[in-house]
Amino acid sequence: ATNAAPVIKLDNTYAGVYRAMADLVVESALKGDYVRASLHAKILEVAWDRSEKELKTKDRAKWAEIDDALDGFIRPVIRHADEKPTEASIKAAYDEFSTKLKLTART
Questions:
Q1: What is the sign, positive or negative, of the torsion defined by CA atoms of 98, 34, 82, 85?
Q2: pTM of the predicted model, to two decimals?
């Protein structure tokens, strides 16, 4: 049986919007819709990059950890035409990004 995609919800925290966008990436990818997943991943990347200065100024090390996890999550999805990521690799990268995103709560 295929594991379900994360439940998409938007909480009112700094990380909430990024988590919701990441959930959309996973949901689309697990449905096999890599065009939509890639679009959601690119939107997530642009939104994250636009807030870079704020978080980077507060804590450069935390920002770098989250940014690396984001890149590890979205790059395989965006580059799906070169090599389609596995469901397990998508979920693992999502979990890593989601865990690192929690660092924003302590910034």
A1: positive
A2: 0.86
